[in-house]
Amino acid sequence: MKYLLPLLLIFPILIFGQNLETEQDSTQVEYIIIEGDSIPREAIDLEEVKLLHRLKFDSKENRIRYYILRRKTIKVYPYAKLAAERLTSLNERLETLDSRRKKKQYAKKVQKYIESEFSAELKKMTRTEGQILIKLIHRQTGKTTFTLIKELRNGWRAFWFNNTAGLFNISLKREFDPIHVKEDYLIEDILQRMFQQGVLEEQKPAVEFDFYELSNKWLNNGKVITETK
Question: Rounded to whole angstroms, how far apart are CA atoms 108 and 4?
Fold first, then answer.
């Protein structure tokens, strides 16, 4: 996984609150007035809560595979989330700089910070963890690792890194595709459960899909049949 580290380090170079008050009209019907909203409302919108199906497995082996996938997903998701956050921060900061030289200097500073902060952990990742991370980076940024490298460095470097990663069965062009790939759906299922349990902090994905439609497609008689690679 030493070849995965330089790929990840480029990404960094890479509810609301309103005052509420209640009042009653002449008919004694209670309304909720939201400051800045001229329309009285009888209810406050609440955050969406997903109702998840109960996990069932058709074999002990598939149960073990699912929980192995869960452990790896929990481990690497924070790094994908970090990549998306750093990419957003980078783009916002670069827009304020007026010269190419200043932009390059800033990018290097960010890279050095991330390298010193996270390189030790990234080096510990296994091949399969690296594969999951590549998928989740696409989920959080909407771009493949290959595309991010190409945009932030150059096309030749992206090509070279992709071929090198291929030796370890890691494609930097891999996308997160829970619609067509069963393992990706299982990863999404794991994420949704971990978000609800507070194990992971949710970050809105850049890739659009309907989780309930995915569940209807992939669930077979209420059983989760894992197909991890």
Answer: 18
